Amino acid sequence: MSADYAGKHVFVAGASSGINLEIAHGFARAGAKVTVLSRSADKIEAAAAGIRETGAEAIGISCDVRDYEGLEAAYAEATGKFGSVDVLVSGAAGNFLAPAVKLSANAFKTVVDIDLLGTFNVFRASFDHLTKPGASLIAITAGQAVHPSAFQIHACAAKAGVNMVTKCLALEWGPAGIRVNAISPGPIGDTEGMKRLGGDPAREQQIKNRLALRDYGTKADVAEAALWLSSPAAKYVTGTILNVDGGNDVGDASANALG
């Protein structure tokens, strides 16, 4: 992605590791000043330090996305350092496999609170700190938002809500010059999510065989999508759920004779 983010302030929530940290690195490589946020003070400072080692400006802030007042303070700190937020990525999430009959109400609530309430909090608390017009907001959702999955009732419900938060805010905040979109990654290799959900090598191959592109994506694939969505090339794109999933959303390609 050739877009220049020099001087821009990018804020990434849930960025201590994985896809969200790679997104932060992607924007840093493109010249942005980056704020990364996550619950663990030690992990988020390590993440920020890793970005600074590349020569980019970065700070890490410890905050739970369920803590609205904490987020307000985080934005005040971040904008005091780097100015208004040009790009905001909300990606904090929690997930695990569990049959509904063994899932406690508290466990269900925990995932919904992190994924759905957390996304709302991250976006809502940002409003007074955004560059207007011009800000780009991106939620990280998942295919479970539109495809019912066994043992994933909590994640399916939460991500379906994230999709609607994205679309509703696109409607409401568009007149202020704020674009709101979401990225829905498919199976992405070398992530904690695939380690938990992908299972052993046989299960991994089974998943790959279902994909039209026959392989897992990379964290860089998702980062590149975020860079594009926030660039002038996507200035007329809002309220969109962008699938970065190797064709996972279009169906099971395992019977495709050409594959």
TrEMBL record:
<dbReference type="InterPro" id="IPR002347">
    <property type="entry name" value="SDR_fam"/>
</dbReference>
<dbReference type="GO" id="GO:0009062">
    <property type="term" value="P:fatty acid catabolic process"/>
</dbReference>
<comment type="similarity">
    <text>Belongs to the short-chain dehydrogenases/reductases (SDR) family.</text>
</comment>
<protein>
    <submittedName>
        <fullName>Glucose 1-dehydrogenase 2</fullName>
        <ecNumber>1.1.1.47</ecNumber>
    </submittedName>
</protein>
<keyword id="KW-0560">Oxidoreductase</keyword>
<keyword id="KW-0521">NADP</keyword>
<dbReference type="Pfam" id="PF13561">
    <property type="entry name" value="adh_short_C2"/>
</dbReference>
<dbReference type="GO" id="GO:0047936">
    <property type="term" value="F:glucose 1-dehydrogenase [NAD(P)+] activity"/>
</dbReference>
<dbReference type="InterPro" id="IPR045017">
    <property type="entry name" value="DECR2-like"/>
</dbReference>
<dbReference type="GO" id="GO:0008670">
    <property type="term" value="F:2,4-dienoyl-CoA reductase (NADPH) activity"/>
</dbReference>
<dbReference type="InterPro" id="IPR036291">
    <property type="entry name" value="NAD(P)-bd_dom_sf"/>
</dbReference>
